[in-house]
Specification:
The structure is a homodimer of 324-residue chains. Chain A is an alpha+beta fold. The first copy, chain A, contains ten helices and twelve strands. In chain A, the strands form two sheets. A seven-stranded mixed β-sheet of chain A has the order 7-9-6-10-8-11-12. In chain A, a hairpin with a 4-residue loop joins strand 1 and strand 2. Chain A starts with a helix and ends in a 15-residue tail after the last strand.
């Protein structure tokens, strides 16, 4: 099966650069002190969204935010947007509304829409956004800079978007509180910039495909293993009760649920307490410590519960497998 | 009917910038002497190509070149590429081959693939390329800088890609010589850079939607009218005989045929002779003078034949109308 990872590996052989293919965004040199970072994300009807429950406002918002999340994860401030879309017949009203809301969303985030492309689509609505930000070179964060014994931390909720997805797909009124996490995620721009400014934050990426899969990517990039303590995956009472009501494992949902767009960072162990304290003072919530980076011959992500190894049959999220 | 022009106008109200929405590419400030230019183009199966006659090599080549053409039209040197695609089931072999050829095409053009996105597609193959180039600020060319009495010139063939499209769609062996113009267009990179270096070249854009439509865009941007002398639309003997054989008007095909990716420039009248002479010395073919810019109360494109007004029922190319 041809996965995105295979494709990235094939391209990397030919274009080996740091901060390029494989990171959340690529780097364009700007000056001695600054760089542009650039990313593109595609959203496709009936793969990433359904118009049955994504109204044009939600979709416009999400199309922008998932791209801004990549910019945030590099430690950059978003600046410019290019918007491409391919429109099926009879979508005129939806797209007019989408454009209005996308324009407003760009203004709200103080990013400038500078170009794009518009075409007809034979069937599905297809959205392709390119986002460009500016980062201080000294504060750029990559996936390959995690070090042994770094604390693995998560900024943001895990699994909420997954419950929102289930609520939307199954039209469950009782789970409606989680729908916004899936329909209208907010990129952690302020947190990304703040974390980028901390020298003891060694690596950063956003969590779009689920913690377990995304941490594997960070491990491969840094050539280190990781250990997740699942009892540190703390969540809200509503999350646990909803998982229980839906007969879902709260641990599995937090490990594999995609589209939360939180930030995954590694922090030098000796500075974690200070960073976490300052983070809470700044943002009012916990920078969750969920594990530790390990140096092992074979790169892998271990799961432990109260320190004891556990095995879970986690279904990896794949763009090429079942639809999310 | 919602056209691309309507969408661009709506966005321009909110983001009024020069060299942005409406030009071939947008500008990102780089330094006092240089700018990045950035563009994105989408190619969709059964709208822009059919896999029945586009093999993976042709498609990879074309996906790159149509984006490089936008970079060339700004007077820039292409540098970086981001590649996004959405892959339907059972396209693995096609995409593996596409990736190989796209990688090679990037190397041949000395551009670096720095990132992208890969997703599953429910049905059609979608390709979304973002290209980034670097231009000297003093040589950047826009659409809105044409002036009254400028000579309208075309670098490249008109209508060849259209005959190639007809040959592919109707599987006509007798017209096979025109297929490469449609399947494997070459962006006029060297010409674009050379023309950008000429101060008497006032405006430049690429011809992707057909001369008549693209000249209208240049006219609207420059707030001038234009007059095309159709007897100056000179072409090859094979072109005329093929149009005749296919019972197509050679003038209409040259005016409305899309996807040739030539360059449309306006040149100060007093310097046209010198520019054209030097262009021929450099590139070995004629920089065709096809008309003149006019200052009129209502912006429009006039057609004349031997100086006398003619009226043709030209079907404008539209991404939202019939498929090309």
């Amino acid at each position: 099966m041809l996965t995105e990872a295979h494709i990235i590996e094939a391209f990397k052989k030919h274009f080996p650069i740091t901060g390029g293919i494989g990171d959340d965004a690529a780097i364009l040199p700007l000056s001695e002190t600054e760089s542009y970072v650039i990313t593109k994300d595609i959203l496709i009807e009936d793969v990433h969204f359904r118009t049955t429950y994504f109204d044009a406002k939600h979709l416009a918002h999400k199309a922008l935010e998932v791209n801004l999340s990549d910019i945030a994860a590099m430690g950059a401030q978003p600046k410019y947007i290019l918007l491409g879309f391919s429109i099926p017949p009879a979508y005129e009203k939806y797209i007019s509304s989408f454009n209005e809301h996308f324009t407003q969303a760009c203004k709200d985030r103080k990013v400038q829409l500078i170009g794009g492309d518009t075409t007809h689509s034979p069937a599905k609505l297809f959205i392709s956004v390119t986002a460009i930000g500016i980062a201080q070179n000294s504060q750029l964060k990559f996936r390959d800079k995690a070090r042994k014994n770094n604390i693995i931390c998560v900024a943001g909720n895990l699994g909420h978007a997954h419950l929102g997805l289930v609520a939307c797909e199954k039209n469950l009124c009782d789970v409606k509180d989680f729908k916004p996490a899936f329909l209208s995620p907010q990129a952690k721009l302020a947190e990304g910039l703040w974390l980028a400014g901390q020298s003891s934050v060694t690596a950063m990426m956003d969590i779009s495909d689920g913690l377990f899969i995304d941490l594997q990517k960070l491990c491969r990039a840094s050539q280190l293993s990781a250990k997740i303590e699942v009892s540190n995956l703390i969540n809200t009472p509503e999350f646990y009760s909803t998982c229980s009501w839906l007969e879902l494992s709260s641990i599995e949902v937090q490990l594999t649920g995609g589209e939360d767009y939180g930030l995954l960072v590694t922090v030098e162990a000796g500075n974690y307490e200070t960073i976490a304290e300052n983070f809470r003072a700044e943002f009012g919530y916990l920078l969750k410590p969920v594990g530790i980076m390990l140096d092992e011959p074979r790169v892998q992500v271990h799961l432990v519960e109260q320190g004891l190894p556990i095995t879970l049959d986690l279904k990896p999220f794949s763009h090429f497998g079942e639809e999310p």
